[in-house]
Design a protein that fits this description.
Blueprint lengths: L3 E11 L2 H12 L9 E6 L7 E10 L12 E7 L2 H10 L3 E9 L2 E7 L5 E7 L3
Parallel strand pairs: 1-3, 4-7
Antiparallel strand pairs: 1-4, 2-3, 5-6, 6-7
């Protein structure tokens, strides 16, 4: 059975993303990379040798990345087998966005939880 293996990212909206990011850096020490996100690195619990990361990022308030609803944050879950998990979710009647994105660092899909929140699923590359 496919499953979630961790939190891949935490994303939220702001009317002033640069100012808010600066506040987090100044008060909590969260330093951004040039793309505007912060990356927290860790090791997979399953083998304690595979490097992993959680991305933290603030998006502009008018972004469509979280879907069309009013939600202000979105969690990205790392998964071990995206296709298998999507099939399980489909069989369970979960709303699945047909859009997919593939990058050199992994594959992405989106679902909607019972409260209408868009949830991002990410299968990192195995390398």
């Amino acid at each position: 059975m496919a499953r979630v293996t961790g939190i891949g990212g935490i994303f939220f909206k702001s009317g002033t993303p640069d100012e808010l990011s600066n506040w987090y850096e100044r008060h909590l020490g969260i330093k951004r990379t040039p793309d505007g996100s912060a990356v927290f690195e860790w090791l997979e619990a399953a083998d304690a040798t595979t490097k992993a990361m959680t991305v933290w990022s603030i998006f502009p308030r008018d972004t469509n990345y979280f879907g069309n609803g009013p939600q202000n944050c979105m969690i990205n879950y790392r998964v071990d087998n995206l296709d298998e998990l999507l099939e399980q979710l489909k069989q369970a009647g979960v709303i699945i966005d047909p859009h997919r994105e593939d990058y050199d660092y992994g594959r992405f899909a989106w679902i909607v939880d019972p409260d209408g929140n868009r949830v991002e699923l990410w299968e990192p590359t195995k390398e």
